[in-house]
């Protein structure tokens, strides 16, 4: 059985209709690939359509402010992708005259573009014979060839890239790369794939060895860290509040949030009041109420955030305030956006 031929035949029959499929515009392919990193297709499509509508060309995206880009990205998570997207758009616009590099190496030089994304753009847009290796491709190759190497190990990354290059169809690289990714996305799925209808089932090592559920192998994740966030939601007599921009590296860089107290554990009302007084906001609170008695658990890849929102009513604010309607225009973490929706329904 010829592996690449079977992938191509399957793809022609089963490929999904996606907004960017069929396009060789590197801007659209790049945009779709960045959005779909760590995001399911069904969730990513509306964002892709919003970005293409708002910024039809890479130069349009380059001219936007970071705040505008982050606001449009709001809800997708992993905001470093949005910042890198904006930075790369500026590079293409300013250094390349709005034209994407046509080589794998040139694309790899763009901010936030790694091996996979450079390979995808080069092959789909410019027919460069460069294999793609994403999570779907790792799974297909690991199962079909029975590879026991961890896909997130240095040795595994090198091996799978080499294997992907050996089995790719150089003459039809555009369709082949899209085909093997699609095959992993809808046929060779992570859990309970329908191996009976798989065109590769006769020669799939994992299926013959009854190891479909075991492969691909992956090194254990780093330990998940618990953090305790206490947001201070100031509410003045005229219905205004305070947002601050989150600075420094780490989660939600440059997004906006309510003033934050991070504590070593969940705070009781009396403990929170002591923390609050220690911050010396120079305001006399009329009342302090915990909006959510049960902490909201926001799960990220390596940390779980146990979040409480403390509503502090005051006559005056500690700094210049904004209306809650205006707060909706700021790029904020989805955690804050969800709170704002609930709070306005409850308090206004």
Short description:
The chain contains 15 helices and 9 strands. The chain has 348 residues and is an alpha+beta fold. The radius of gyration is 24 Å and the shape is elongated.
How would you describe what is shown here?
This protein is about 45% helix and about 15% strand. It is α+β, with helices and mostly antiparallel strands and about 350 residues long. The chain has 2 domains: about 5-210, Hypothetical protein, domain 2 (Endonuclease III, domain 1, Orthogonal Bundle), CATH 1.10.340; about 225-345, Alpha-Beta Complex (Nucleoside Triphosphate Pyrophosphohydrolase). The longest helix has 16 residues, at about 80-95.
Helix-strand pattern, N to C? HHHHHHHHHHHHEEEEEHEEEEHH
Summarize the main sheet.
5 strands, mixed
Helix content: 40-55%
What global shape is seen? elongated
Instruction: Report, as a whole number of angstroms, the end-to-end distance.
Output: 66 Å
What's the architecture of the largest domain in CATH terms?
Orthogonal Bundle
Q: What's the total count of β strands?
A: 9
Strand percent estimate: 5-15%
CATH fold annotation of the largest domain = Endonuclease III, domain 1
Low-confidence stretches: none
